[in-house]
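User: Show me sequence and structure for the first protein, then do the same for the second.

Assistant: Starting with the first protein.
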Amino acid sequence: MNPLNDSSFIQQLDPRLARPFLIGFSQAMDLVFLIGAAVMVIAFVVVWFLPHVELRSGSSYESRGEQDAADAATVVVRDDALPSLSR
């Protein structure tokens, strides 16, 4: 039984021997949570100072409709610009 992979052996130890293991585990977890909290605070501050970038001012359907209308107008202009062939 490897204590690094399975910590259930602590439940079977004498409480006097288990106490240092329990304190070590709890202090390690405290450190992990404190570092995680510090990273979250730093990330929040960084996000707070990022500039606002507007991604889109209208809906995608509206812009697609305008693009389709512009493409259709371009096609019509090209058809009207062609000289007619007469025999």
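Switching to the second protein now.
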Amino acid sequence: MPFEIHAHAQQGSLSPLITFGLVLLAFVYCRGWLRIRNASPTLIPLWRLAAFVSGMFLLWIALGSRLAVLDHQLLTVHMMKHLLLMTAGAPLILLGAPSLPLQCGLPKYFMHRSLLLRSRTPPLFAHLFSNSIFCWLAGAAAVIAWHIPALFNLAMSSHTWHIVQDASFLSAGLLFWRPIVQPWSSDAKPPRWSMPLYLFLAAFPCDILSAFLTFCGRVVYPSYASAARVFNLSPLQDQECAGALMWVCVTFAYLIPAVVITMQILTPGDVNRQGNAPGMLPPLAVAKVSGVEVEVVQRYGD
């Protein structure tokens, strides 16, 4: 099993780097959150900090912990990584409204550079990343494409492509959940009533894939047929567990926000509360922080 040994060694060498990067991100976010808290105590509440840090922790479990090593031996573990990146970690990170705290947590020089870079971002990109159809297609494409046997085996046999696969899962997850979470209510956003339908349609590719993995009766990915056995699971049993795990987790992950959004829409007076929905910050707060942003950096500038 030379490739498994090689994969273990490479993952082990990357784990400290991944851990350091995630801890650094969490530190910068917390630093920025404290600065914003001092300037505007109610703008970004404590639960957003908790959501972001929880998202970082889930990313560490998927990418930097010992669990990450086992995805070359168990399809179930690979599916857990996929779900942690796309279905759990991504929405928690977005709920933390990370853009502003990360900017305010940077040293003064990098803060100004990030603002300059942001001001030069082409409007087309901002429009594209705010388009719910594009975000939906990005999420569906990542799920379907990386589970095509040829691409899946490429990621399992190449460390570089495995990194690309993990990065695309996380990126697609952030794009997919953006229209749902909507951290800034000033963003161009689709009608709220379309979001339950958005989630309902997104469940179909996952349901089809999970049903196929569970009931096809054959091992789809040859790399797991020759991998060392863990927990006394045969390759086919492992594949069935992975399919069942995907179906259950995706169903609940999409059903719960769909029900919450539907209840918000049907509740009398919801139109007046749209700006204060749990996922969003009110437009006045966004305008206010644009003025506080520089003041905070000047006050605590490095």
